[in-house]
Every structure is written in C-alpha cells, then in structure tokens.
Amino acid sequence: MGFAVLALGGFTLACDDKPKGGPEAGTVAVDLSPVPEPKGLAATFVVGKPGEAWGKLRETGGGPARLLPQSFGLLVSMLLGLPTAAAEAIDADVPMTGAASADASGAVQVAVAIHVRSGRELTAQLTAGADALYSARAHAETGMTLIEPKPGKASTEVSLAILGNYLLASRHAADLTEVGPYAARTLSKEPPPKRPISLSLRKSALSGPVASTLRDAWKSKKAELEQLDGKNRQTHGGRAPDFGDPAAAIAALSGAVDSFVKVLESADAGRIVVEPLGDRLEVMVELDAAKEGAAAEIFSGFALGDAAPIGALPAATPIAVLVRTSSASREASAKNIEQGLGDLFGDRLSAPDREKVKGVLDKLSRGRGDWETYGVYVEAGKGGAVYRASTTDAKQFDAGAKDLFKLLSVKALGEPLRQFAGELSVKQSSAQIPGVPGTAQRTLLGLKPSPMRTAADKSGKVSAETQDLELLWAHKDGRVFGAGSLDAVPILGVMVAADSDEKASHKGDAKVAAALSRVKDASFVVLVQPLRLGAGTPSATPGSPVVVSLGRRGRTGFLRAEADQAALESLLKSIALSR
Q: pTM surpassing 0.90?
C-alpha cells in the first residue's frame, strides 16, 4: 500500500549509512562492508538529504501539500504502515539510496532501506512485548533481522528487515535479501550526486523492463483499436470507411511507438532528476545516446535554441508552443506529411490532388524559417489562435498559406468536414490594418453548420446561419505574425505591439520571463499557465508558468519540466476536490 508510493518508475529506494564518529550504541553487529552488485542491476536511486527534500516538496506543493505528514519520519511511518512512534527512529539527514534488478524474464526486484538512529532499538520497539505488531527472525545469510507482521496486527503488503542501522522495505522478502544488502552496504559508500533526487537507469533497464512494458502496453491498445475497426467494417458490410482509413492511422501510431522504443534501446543510460526548490519544481529526464542507433540519429537532428520566441508573444497567451527546425528537417517533414496523408486516404486522394498537397507543403517548407510559435489568446472575453514565426521567403510562405486553405476543396480532405461540421467557403483578400506594417493577408472561412450537426444539438445553441472565422497574417523584419478569430484584427494588432513592447508580452511577467530564461538547448518548448486558462482577463492574473522543453546537450537528449508553485498548488487542489 504505502510502499508503492515510495516506488519511482517501478524501482524502490534504499538508504545509506554514514557513521558519525565511532560505533553507535545499539548497532547490530553485522558486516556492512560493500557487496557485489546484484545480477541484472537495472537502476539506482539517491536522495541526498531526504528530510530537506521532503520539506521542499511540501513547500512547493503549497497549501494542500501541507496537509501531508510534516516530517520525513512521519511520512515513512505512514507509507510503511508502522506505528507513529517509529517516526522518531528515522534519520532524515543521511542520504537515501536504492537499487533495482531485473532477471531475464523482465521481473523486477526492488528494495528500500532507510537509515535509522539505532537498528537494535527500532527492532525492540516493533517486536518486543505482548502487544507488538511484529516478530523478529534472524536471516543468517545476510545478517538481516526480518521484521515479520503478526497475523491480523500489521500490514502484509510490505516486507521489512533491519540491517545494522538500516530499515529495509520491499514488496517481497526475497527482494530484501537479493537487493537490500547492495543498496545499504555498497551504494551508501559512494559520494551522493549533487542533485537532490536522482534515479539512474542502466542500459539493461531501458532495453529490458522499460521497453518491454511500453511494447506490451501498445500491443494491448493496438489489439483493442483493431478489434473496434473490424466491428465497424462488419457493420458496414465489410467495406472500408468513407474517409480516412483507421488501419493506416493505427500503423502510423505503431511506427511512432516502435521508434520511441528503439530510442530507448539505443541509449547507453538514462536519468530522472527531481529538484524541489520551494517556489517551483524541476524534473529532468535524460537519455545518453550510444554512438550509433536511433537515439543518436534523432538527437542529432534537433535544431537547438532558447525559448525567447515565446517570450515575445502577448501576455494574454496562456498556452504557447515553440518548434525549432532546420531546412533539412522541414523538407523531411513535408515529405512525411505528404506520405502520411497518402496512406491515410489511399485512393480517395487522387494523383492530381496529391500533387496539390505536395505543392503546398513544398512552398511552406521553403518559406518558413527556423522557428515557429503557436498560441491560444484569451483576453477580456476575446479569444483566438496566434502564430509568430521566422521566415526565409515571405512570398513562398504567403503562397503556401493561401493554397493551404484552398486544399479544403479537395474532396478527400473537405468532404469529412462538410458532413460533420458543415459547408465551408473560402474568401481571400488583403487589407491595410492600423498598427500592422505593410499589407496583411486575409482569409475568411465561412462555415454553414451541417444538418448532422444541427440535428444533434439538443440545446438549440448551434445556429443554422453561416459562421465566419477570420485569419490574418502580416510580415515584419523577417517574421510573420498571424491571428485567427471571429474578429482577428485587434488580436493581430496586439501581436505586433507585443513584439516591440516587453510590458505587453511574456517578457513583462517576471515569473514567466524567469521560467523561459532557464530553457537552454531546446528544440521544442511548451508554456502553459493553468491559473490564466479560466480567467476572464488572464494578463491581470498572477503568472503560473509550467514549462516543458525537449532538447539535447552533446549526445544526451533531455525532457525538462518545471512547474511554478502556484500551478502545483492549483493542481493539488483540483485532485483533492475530485475525490
């Protein structure tokens, strides 16, 4: 029960012994010299100062987190089902370490050992007296004292033992004897890492239990999707779907999952690092690519930079995405999209129509620059989508953007939209907009709701009248600014103004600006501000940045996430209210 909470990624913890001076009173006389690593060692785990780390985690979580046990000792007692009085025995100042091993079948053995002030006194506290919840039994081979629950008095979900001044815990007693000694006797002698909470994964773990777990999960989901597709085809007399082919979509997903697993299998090692800082929580997942293989190939293709382009978006953009690309990756992406659409629609997409798609993608590939940002704009009841990007050829970009909307006239692409959403019309023009440089390009999309959509609307809120969506974009100094909304003119004006006025952009928010400044060597960045999503005037709401970035340093690929304290507190409150 509680033990599962201490497990991280399926690997549990162990605690190191750092003697302070001479032998401690009450120390069990056992051999604590280092032992060889267990066969199939897959992962190790270290918490430099568990008491301090737990205190920072509670602080970072805000009000809801303060309802959790105040001390690390109380946390351990609660998770392991020990009497509350046992909390005083926990030594929260000594580094906590751990290990996990995996056998050839993929079965994982994990163990946790937490440093205590006196192993002998804790043993007596748990097992002595007629009312004791546990009994003690010596394990001669390891020198452990097994702490076994008395029937009906203590939880049987956790196996416990004492080894010197270590309290060991695991799901199974066999895990304690196989992995526990290495975690307590060997890892404890190694210098702790500089980062407060760190899980290190060996190649054997990435290519073994982690990869097999992902493959098995997708195999099960794929079978479910294929079964659903088969039932739908039977319902319609065995014919293929009218629009996209689910089989092609499933194949594409399979390819994506397989590619990700190959990245894991071609990595030499990995790490997960957690750092609570009081005002925010940072998490870093790292993979060290081997010299050759999928990981090295994919990581080397990352175009890297900072998160500055997001900082220039309007402050009232609570969701923003940055993508960095190279000329080669844009060209490859265009070909992949073209191939993917061809596979999805099959012969529904004729050869001439495929050429139209190819032409649009080629123009956009040549016109776009090395970075693009996308965002959701919400301010004072006005909402829309925003776009800001670098360009290499404005004319090619404009031609590709205009032709992109014309693709809706292609039957394979437009027919699903017409049936499920409604009849779509496209009108294109240009306009002069105050505050916006040059001539803005304008596309007006008119959507007349389909009978299917209006018939399904029981609330009567869907109007049968044509609804217009305005799309505007303009160029300035090698950048393009775009906005899409029912009325896109004021939003485009805000976009252009924020480009030169830091106070009107994310740069003017100290919290958001600081979070974005910590992003380095990134190829993909996402900014979300939870507190501003439901606010009527997001720019007047306190910043609550959550920033996720994907990038590379040398041969190491990383996924980094940081969440502001206000965002975490909001999340914890939502979880508490949902229960």
A: no
